[in-house]
Write a structure and sequence with these properties.
315 residues; alpha/beta; 11 helices
């Protein structure tokens, strides 16, 4: 008999087809809760989910044969890791499989915000471009020579730094600890990094420690010529403080691919003109999706063979 896997959220059709070849696949489920499990879920050896979905102790306890929580993508913030560890349940994620795609998208958002690409699009669509100097959009600074501060210099953050260097940007960062293997400017506080930066890039993991880390004092330090870009998790940014900063000119603009309560985006944020909004699509490149699927299948093969997980998360 095929081993049973429970798929919590709906996954790409190509991945579902591959999983069905080797496993008895259950799901998707409407809610990731113990009282919303399909018939046969008690046989599930693996729970396939995403970091933004809650995988709490009650859900894991309702799956008595569960041995692995496999997160599609890099996020793991929704998993009760203490319970998993205490119960001997393994945890895996997408490692750095989507890092290149997310990094290039992050640079795209930075360009869109700093160079006002979205405003340019709206300028033409509204019929305001008449070809006269009076109607031309304001001149803005480019990226060359500007300071990019990266909050979270992991796999994605380091790739963003590499791409930004091509634009001639100066790179700084803030981590829990300094990266002596990298030549970039280090700030020991997020406020300090914001004050140093002209663009502040959020690439940090979601955790209780990083919730609303980008708050009013950080945005104040970034200043009226500064731009914020977030391709991390929405909870890392205080959205009310960000709206206030954008509305009052405390910062110049922002590019956001993630939001605190997805898919709900505050109407207040939608109404602001100097922000570029995209629906959590930074990893939606075919190369990244294929790499994530390959890594997931390798993790499953390793788990059922009793071998170390290629991208296991230490608990």
């Amino acid at each position: 008999m095929k081993p049973t896997i429970l798929m919590a959220p709906k996954m790409p059709a190509s991945l579902v087809a591959r999983l069905q070849q080797s496993y008895e696949l259950l799901g998707p489920i409407e809610r990731p809760t113990a009282d919303a499990l399909p018939t046969g879920a008690a046989e599930a050896r693996v729970l396939l989910t995403v970091g933004g979905w809650r995988t709490d102790a009650a859900l894991m306890q309702a799956l008595p044969k569960l041995g692995l929580v496999a997160c599609y993508g890099t996020g793991i913030e929704g998993v009760d890791q203490a319970h998993a560890k205490a119960s001997g349940i393994l945890l895996s994620n997408g490692g750095d499989a989507n890092a290149d795609a997310v990094a290039e998208f992050a640079v795209g958002l930075m360009l869109a915000s700093v160079r006002q690409i979205g405003k340019g699009d709206r300028f033409i669509r509204s019929g305001r471009w008449t070809g006269t100097a009076i109607e031309r959009m304001p001149i803005v600074p480019g990226l060359a020579g500007r300071r990019l501060g990266i909050y979270g210099l992991g796999s994605i953050g380091t790739r963003i730094a590499t791409l930004a260097k091509v634009f001639g940007m100066e790179i700084g960062y803030h981590n829990r600890s300094r990266r002596p293997d990298l030549p970039y400017h280090y700030e020991d506080s997020l406020v300090g990094l914001a004050a140093w930066s002209e663009v502040l890039m959020v690439a940090v993991r979601a955790s209780a420690e990083t919730r609303h880390a980008v708050n009013a004092p950080v945005l104040q330090a970034l200043g009226p010529k500064g731009h914020l870009v977030n391709i991390s998790r929405g909870l890392a940014v205080d959205e009310a403080a960000l709206c206030e900063a954008l509305e009052t000119g405390t910062i110049a603009g922002a590019g956001l691919d993630v939001f605190e309560h997805e898919p709900n985006v505050p109407d207040r944020l939608k109404a602001i003109d100097n922000v570029v909004l995209t629906p959590h699509i930074a990893a939606m490149a075919d190369s990244a999706q294929l790499a994530q699927q390959e890594l997931l299948m390798r993790n499953l093969d390793a788990f059922f063979a009793g071998q170390p997980l290629p991208s296991g998360v230490p608990l």
